[in-house]
Design goal:
Number of helices: 31
Shape: elongated
Low-confidence stretches: 1-17, 626-630
Strand content: 5-15%
Distance between the termini: 101 Å
Largest sheet: 6 strands, mixed
Strand order of the largest sheet: 2-3-1-4-5-7
Structural class: mainly alpha
Bound molecules: guanosine-5'-triphosphate, magnesium ion
Number of strands: 8
Length: 712
Amino acid sequence: MKLPAHITLPDARRPAEAERPPVYAMVGNPNCGKTTLFNALTGLRQKVGNYPGVTIEKKIGTVYSQHGRALQVIDLPGAYSLAARSPDEAVLRDVLLGRRDDTPQPDRIICVVDAANLERNLYLVHQVLDLGRPVIVVLNMMDMAAAAGLRVDARALERALGVPVIACEAVHGRGLIELRLAMSRAELPLARHRWEVPGPVAPAVAELQARLQRDEGRAPLVARAEALLLLTDFDPVQVPGSRPLSPATEALVAQWRERGAKEGTDWSGVLVRSRYDAIAILAADVVRRSGAPPANVTDRLDAVACHPVWGWFVFAGLMAAMFFSIFSLAEVPMNAIDAGVAALGDRVKDAMAPGDLRDLVTDGVIAGVGGVVIFLPQILILFLFVGLLESTGYMARAAFLMDRPMSRVGLNGRSFIPLLSGYACAIPGIMATRTIENARDRLVTILVLPLMSCSARLPVYLLMIAMLLPGEAAPAAQKAGLMLLMYALGTGGAFGFAWLFKRTLVRGGSPHMIMELPAYQPPRWREILRHMVERGWLFLKNAGTIILAISIVLWALTTYPKHPDPEATPTAQIAHSLAGRAGHLLEPAIEPLGFDWRIGIGLITSFAAREVFVSSMGVIFGVEGGDDEDTAPLREALAAARWPDGAPLFTPLVCFTLMVFYVFAMQCMATLAVVKRETASWRWPLFQLAYLTGTAWLVCLVVHQAGRALGF
Ligand SMILES: Nc1nc2c(ncn2[C@@H]2O[C@H](COP(=O)(O)OP(=O)(O)OP(=O)(O)O)[C@@H](O)[C@H]2O)c(=O)[nH]1
Ligand SMILES: [Mg+2]
């Protein structure tokens, strides 16, 4: 039977598509709003920030079509071109070319375009259209374009390209319905994209394309696009997890490149020019200037924020404000938590019969976990500030400002955003180094990154500052100053070692930084609050799992074996215990720094994570606090600690030295594991561990001995 022409058979006729709904990839320039759109579509909560290079890994989410079918969407790192310059861009390229085993090759591509910078953004679109896949173009940031006095005509672009073009404002949720409708379509038109490979390059492309189709199993147009990239990208970035080409294909590429070089054809120049010519014609039809451009707020702010002198005042002012508020704002909630933890301890002491079990709960669990949880308000404030810097776009200015001092030590401003993220936590910082083009710069940045004072050090610093400047009377400015000193010491150390490594281990110049300064945006409070809650929750979760476990184990290690004399003092009991013996073993090495064996136990346990030092002190000195029925704040217990000869243990000098130790020492197992993964060998994390711990010991030795000599 022959069907009338207007009746199409349902999905049964296209079995492959019926079984597997299309996979979409989210592609576009850095900072054009891909992740915002991805989050809005999928309901996921990937990180967003107003500076280029926020997403560094692919992320898969599900969006439901108009018909309730589950469509997969892959969020990808941003790139200006498919000729990848850094590992994060190489991930994008390899996903699109189908070179990765861990990600399906996308069937359809969503090209997100910053409408306020259309011409530049269209370069990547042009390359993506080459792939011959169905494409939906999203004209995002229409509000920013309008604010810049531009009228961007989505319909004109749609007519010119022949693919659906959807005007959007991802942050305000505008255009999402239209986008979802387009994504739900069973068929999407292919682009009316008739761009011919320029003459001088054509024979090479043709041969290589044929080879890629035959040997690597690529679809014809993907093969052509890949051939274009292979011939023009002379130093392709490889990332782990991507399938390499066969040696025969590699040989063919090398052969053609050699020929090109001999004939003196500037292949990549020819290609880039031909693309830009096509784009210029396109953009002229689509973008209209409506009147004079309005006075530019971003430019006016940048005249100050990026000024070679005033810029530094702004930077210093912001940092000072951050540390000041960490102390002043957190005071009230901290006291409340402090009182709550103490009251809980007393309640338990009253309710339970004396014995090992009660001690486990009060001295192990409550003293350990409670001692750390107190610092939650300060950690939230730190993340509030980091969130504000990221969301408004100031982060990119800080990187711009830092480019000059960074180039003195042989790095460039690109390394600064990862370093700055290191203030929150070294792990996302190390991941963010994937945006660094130069492999040597990337390695050096990873090596020095743990020197940036992360939020896990906050509890240690804060406890020691509370010991150094006790009481409400001590002005917040003084505490903030001390804290600023620790951060400056770490940052200075990072710069110093970067300088050293660039001169010894991994020599080599650094290419100049090209980084876009995004327009300032008002802070996105919802995002910031969500991120704060996430980080705060993570901190509490750590406290409830790792720190809880270590506190319990440590309690057991300080309680057993029991001292033969049941009347022994708590100190004698700990000294007799397993933990005490380990601490004594370490004591000769740390005594010159002014630390005793009990601090030594804390140094050992906090190797798992730095904040464990505080919980360990809670367990050790909480136990020592003895049998009195009141639970004293940790700092009072520490202030009462004595050397065997009766001299106080936590003198101001020792507190200061301990802070310095934590500035430098590599006390974080998770970071070592991530460095191993990112450098693909144990060599670098072990080196890092050795050099940082060695430096910590040496610097503390100098500080302590000099302090003693000066009479502290
Ligand atoms: N005004 C305006 N801002 C937007 C819009 N869409 C996203 N943004 C903001 O643009 C910034 C960048 O957004 P992201 O979603 O992180 O951009 P991205 O493309 O994922 O960036 P990378 O991951 O770095 O490549 C954020 O500050 C967003 O809040 C929009 O339509 N209008
Ligand atoms: Mg992103």
